[in-house]
Amino acid sequence: MVLLLSLIWIISFNGIFVCLFRRRFEETLTLSLMCGALVLYVFSFFSALRLGFYVLMAMGLLFWVYLLVKRKNVKKILGLLFTPGLCAFFFMALCVFVIYHRKGFENADEFMHWGPMVLSSLEHNGFYLSKDILLVNNDYPPFMTLIKMIWIGFNGFHYSEPLLFTAQLTFYFSCPLPLFSSYRKEDWKKIAALTAAVILIGFWMPSTYTAQEWAFLYNSIYLDWVLPAMAVYTYLIFRREGINSFSTAAVSISLACVLLSKQIGLCYYLIIGFMIIVKGLQEKDRKKMIPVGIMAAVPLAVYLTWMVAVRFAGASGVYDVGKISLGELWRNLRTYGTYEHTLAKDFLSAIFTRNLSSYPFTLSYMGYSALMLAGILVMNRKKDILLAFSLLCGTMGYALVMAVLYMTLFEEGGRLPSFDRYMLSYLYFEVLILFALIVEKVRELKKPWAYALAALLLLVSINYSSLPIVTPAYGSSYTRVLVVDNTDSFYPSREDVDGMLFGFRKSHANEEDFGLNGFLSEVKESDLLYIVNYDPPFYDIWKQISPDLDPYTGVVIAIEEKDGQTVFMPMWSHHFNHIIRYYLLEKN
Asked: The pTM is what?
């Protein structure tokens, strides 16, 4: 029912933009979803997010009222709305729903902040700027959370992990839809092939040293792969439209949402902005620079509102650029042996020598980027020189920004944490652009062999070892977690989480029915221990087993057998902590 209601609203709400710009469904869909999120964004400033949702529903109804009034235009509007691109999108949305209808979180950041962001938004009926439910990253821009809140609204504002996957992936699949805008109903075979290709392209992300288990598009609600897709939508619209009223609106709103998705979105804003400015300078009509200025100013103005909200709430987070002192950074970089100097050398070495890809090529960040840029130039040498140059600048600029972040804002920057995931996300931007150019070139050739060759290249490049990650199953190997709790406050909503099964032991039980032997028998059947809280009887029993270790609350403790004795090892930084904390948050 949620899927049906969501799709009906998507058609209805997008119909407004089809009427306004006289563009096809696939060209305006991403724009309309972005505007829907921005409506919720405005209402969130007044802690009226739910009211914003009902306003969106009313706006969807207004489209059908408009059709009843403007009967002469009905056939033309419906022709723009019900297109092959809509059929392709419906199929993609159905695939997403089927795959993720039982999917739950598995990855650390999902439990630590992506999930709690939505929980906090529900709690506050607006932004998650207060540090109560969400304990970290309260300054993260809220765009994708707002997209998810639309779907949560269709679920009666009841929180649901599978819906978060469904909302994010459905939005993701709207981004490449402009690729379908030149096809007609009679091209159904080509449309089917392109639909399959768009679904498969998400499996491009290769296995890497630090990202192979979780940093895939289809396996998490991380934003790393959606952000470049949003940027590519912006590029596709600008490439197709040039500088006109529709591209001015679409690019302005799209880049605003890119900035409101993640701080690193600034890199994509600069890359696309550079291409737009050069295009504007090439125009003979200097009045074209007015829309260029609008496309540059509107995103920054929208993002400024978020910065003001963060400052007003005092929600300074990890990625506060105000903490960066460029003068101090430059001095330390020039001093041999400093943290910044050493990290800069390690980072420079990593982007040239550290293999991000294991399939189909073993290449570093710079190597893979060079391959993508070469492919772009092969597509159309003269036409895409500006594009290739812009992406080359982006490749170096993105690396520079990441290096600065590692040296200034990352607490453990010396280890280059999540290096593969962060750097691959930019490469995915270039991969998607190359994919779009190949689709464009194949469509121009209009030869059956061209489609066969494109299909062969895609099939060869797909990393098939990543295919099983789409399945919602968690496997048959479980870790049993023994939970000690004397207030009945801990109740996970799922028994099976990331291969974890929860057992329970009430620590307030007296020694007769619990005791040392009873606790030891429970421990021997468990792999991990999580102590929510305890009382004096439990503390006395614990000290008989582990006199040198206090029974820490809120920390996952590994249980091991060494030389016939039970040993407890606190797992201070293990992501199971995030899982358990998340469940406590979900149950408030």
From this structure: 0.85
